[in-house]
Specification:
The protein starts with 9 loop residues before the first helix and ends with a strand. It has one domain: T-fold. It is built from four helices and 13 strands. Helix 2 runs antiparallel to helix 3 and helix 3 packs across helix 4. With 212 residues, the chain is an alpha+beta fold.
């Protein structure tokens, strides 16, 4: 995968923005025919929802569906809540589940995590995230290392988690304070590069942070 560190040409920026597309009567309208839609930010979460809904439709009421780290659980696991691990956001933490930062207990909810510690590019000592800020065309750069969002639908959790990685820690917390329907767990770095965490109040009783 190629990561661009130079500014996107103005002609490409002209094609970016949700205001340039509209759905009317089930039809998609674009202000320019060259505009393309990329659903990568919600594709895995949406696929999880489809599979979970199918399992529920055939009578499998207790299940867990996971694709690429995006998860949806229905019911419990033999009388106890499902336990979902959140990886520690370190650059060398390649294998999911090998080094956990926290464990979240979950029932009848979806969970998605976005981070910048597995997909990135380093040039001249500067780390560039794979997440692009649509307002600048540059890779997003902030102190937020990992954002875990819990919502009813996994596609929603997936999309919000990606948006958080663009917004950064402070704007994400402001957003979450306005949207109590979401639970969240954030991992970010302080001025000295140390890991810090933040969780919504409605999640704190269902989260266990591992010892560092």
């Amino acid at each position: 995968m190629k990561y661009f560190t130079e500014p996107i040409h103005d002609s490409l920026m002209d094609f970016i923005g949700i205001d340039k597309v509209e759905i009317k009567n089930g039809m998609l309208y674009k202000t320019d025919s060259r505009i393309e839609l990329d659903f990568n930010a919600i594709a895995q979460g949406y696929s999880v929802d489809i599979l979970s809904n199918y399992l529920s439709s055939i009578g499998i009421k207790r299940h867990l569906v996971e694709i690429g780290g995006e998860v949806r659980v229905c019911g419990d696991k033999g009388g106890v809540l499902w336990r979902i691990g959140i990886d520690r956001p370190e650059d060398n933490n390649i294998m999911p589940g090998e080094d956990l930062q926290a464990i979240i207990s979950l029932k009848d909810r979806s969970l998605a995590t976005s981070g910048n510690y597995r997909k990135f590019y380093i040039e001249d000592g500067i780390k560039y995230s794979h997440t692009i800020d649509p307002k600048t065309g540059y890779p997003a750069r902030n102190r937020l290392l990992s954002a875990t969002i819990i919502a009813d639908e996994c596609a929603t959790a997936d999309g919000i988690a990606t948006a958080c990685m663009v917004m950064g820690q402070e704007r994400t917390i402001e957003f979450l304070n306005l949207h109590p329907e979401f639970e969240a767990y954030l991992i970010y770095s302080d001025d000295n590069g140390n890991f810090k965490t933040w969780a919504t109040q409605n999640l704190k009783e269902n989260i266990y942070e591992t010892e560092e």
